[in-house]
């Protein structure tokens, strides 16, 4: 078996580090602290991982520009970006490789897709590496792991929250409580677990009747058979639990063709794939108009300056779901490193476990409160509702974050 | 045990022991957990390849659906652990059982199909099962962590132990594969791979062998899947039932070499680390490029070594005759007991294909010890008649009684077992097998045990004059040699009646004479022969009697010269104009 060799890139950065070290030897050289971003950069989910990388890179830049990790003598953060590939196996292999090639890693984040996160954290947990994730699956924090921190509300929590929020939005804007809902969803893990609590008790609690309940296997090639029953049933709103932008586009297009665009029939999606720039490009602003999306995070009005800086830095049209999570995760690791005062996995994990703050990295989450429970779930993680308005996703809920006002189409 | 099987087993066993020791030594010296993971994955994928090879590689029935077994194994282990807290040590055997049952259930309907249709329908099973598991809500099932009893639940803290378990499974699968390869089981599958009909005509119950093959193969693939779940620690329908998993089984085997246990091992040992190295080195520079390079590498190597690395290397560096014991001089094969009276009695046999009446009301008898020549223009129904007699086709009406038993309604291998041997218009040999093994297939078909089969095959080779070349691969034979070899294969089952379909086709005059001598020799030993032939000069010298078919009917029957002068026969062969000119 070959021994690990130093890649060209590693050699360059080593050279860079050496140069840096040489330049600052006089001031007791602060070492670099390595953190990892392990996300899909190739395969069907690459677009999602690329957005996370942009967010994480900006955060590392911001932390380093602000003087690095103060308690470590201004040590700079170094971000390792690693591709999971397209399967759970390649993701797990990549995690194992990351750990063996970078023994000094103190923390990491990823992998967007729950399946990958589940596989990768089996490795990171055994290596006691603190790991932050935006993945939604409840299973991630149901395994009794101690080094995993889930900053998004879990799929179950999102499901519990979204319907009451929608009922409130409808009542506030129209003065009427909806009574009929149509559900169209795919059969992936995320959608299935999302629908479980809704079907088991939430509909009953909210006195709602599911007039349509259509499940499909992605990817969709034709959505008419899903949309026709919705038109026949005249629901008060529609839950669209798709998981891929391609299906989102087809559903939005078909609802529009059948005279039920988001501007006439309340269409509610869930998940970051509904608000990627690509969807706007392929579908167009008029068809997306007024579609609402439940999200685990989205920048509110208090982060307008940060959003503008990101847009200028990357040329992307907005600072979105994946980007803000990655940005926040880097900030959490920086905060924990600073608190721990040592580039040590155990101490960093401890700092995250015991954090209970409303400032610092907490401002990047709805509710501005950052604390994790014993499972590693963020306490009081709240859902954000974003609405497509004139070709831009606009935060409309919670009110404290709202950039614009919600429109409930009737 | 196949001829030379013991020697081959000993040689392969030693090689396996050496490879295992080296591999374990390598694994023990690796302290990098990532390389250790690779060392765990290589034997697991090799086991899947071995499972695939045991069925598809050996029998030639390509399966694009081995992910079905792999996934079933993975899910049985996972769900047993999640719901019953059952250790994978029991879960994996349980998964193998499920894989074997799945093999049976899948084989039952699918063996009705052949060739590409079989391959394509196999593709459907894992895809269908994938949706079933999604529907059941098993989209993402993590294996619960057991920190207290890591060894009991195959969740070792030391990754070396995982590698050792994987190597153990690999060694078990290799041994199973070697035993199959060197037994009549393996030879039967190889015979099916070359020509299923010929194998069936030699008396092998091909359906049963295929079924056994798929069941064993399903169990092995399921074992690989079960262990894979323990290594990956999360199971999703996509990661175990996807086309990529089925493709992995094919790729490692085709790359390493089909129909040898070493193929999957070589393929996995090269490809898995290659893919990973590419992921590690190139994937970090341009994500996704690793897949392109991997694909190009596979194409390049397959172009250079189309039969897989194993065969290409063997042919280049170790091309020699397999070490077979020299054939001992033996007494001429026991004469078939002389029979008297009518051996085959055909009455009113008919077969139609839609509007085409291929065989109509054909009636004739064959006396014991006789050589009956069947002649007739192309399309007269001669081969169809043979196919009706030996069970390839089912007759619409009529009867064919052979030595007192009705042949109609019996399967090909059952007819063969009653003592009816057959050769085909186009010779199908098993080119990589030695002549002796080609012939042994026929002896196995007759239900002989290993020693008796080897003896019968040697005797049959001697009878056709090929004894001195018994150890050579059949691929080296000339056309005449192939005809003789096929004849020997039919003879090895000690038939009482031989159905020979254009055995002399394409032979020169001298070669033809040699074959005639052999055939006459058979008759002297009491074998009854029915032969279809166009080579008239040979037929006139060989046959006792002619039966002339035209448009599916019996046109004439009788002594050769009398038949040849029959105006109806001349007209059928040469047309009415010729007849008119002759009379003019």
Description:
The complex is a heterodimer of chains A (410) and B (584). Chain A has 410 residues and is α/β, with parallel strands linked by helices. Chain A has 13 helices and 14 strands. Chain A has helices at residues 8-23, 46-65, 88-101, 114-126, 155-174, 189-205, 224-233, 245-257, 277-283, 285-288, 304-314, 321-340, 345-354; strands spanning 32-39, 76-83, 107-110, 131-133, 148-150, 180-186, 209-216, 237-241, 267-270, 292-295, 356-357, 370-371, 384-389, 392-397. In chain A, strands 7-6-8-9-10-13-14 form a seven-stranded mixed sheet, with helices on both faces. Chain A has a five-stranded parallel sheet with strand order 2-1-3-4-5, sandwiched between helices. Chain A has a two-stranded antiparallel sheet with strand order 11-12. In chain A, β8, α8 and β9 form a beta-alpha-beta unit. In chain A, α2 crosses α12 (321-340). Mean pLDDT of chain A is 90; it is low at 1-29. In chain B, a hairpin with a 2-residue loop joins β11 (545-550) and β12. In chain B, α2 (33-59) runs parallel beside α6 and α2 packs across α7 (184-194). A six-stranded mixed sheet of chain B has the order 8-9-10-5-11-12, sandwiched between helices. Chain B has a four-stranded antiparallel sheet with strand order 4-3-6-7, with helices on one face. By secondary structure, chain B is of the alpha/beta class. The A-B interface holds A 1, 4, 7, 9, 41-43, 46, 81-83, 85, 87-90, 92-94, 96-97, 99-101, 114-115, 118-119, 122, 125-126, 137, 139, 143-145, 187-189, 192-193, 217 and B 26, 30, 32-35, 37-39, 41, 131, 134-135, 137, 139-140, 142, 144-145, 157, 232-234, 236, 238-239, 244, 276, 279-281, 283-285, 287-288, 290-291.
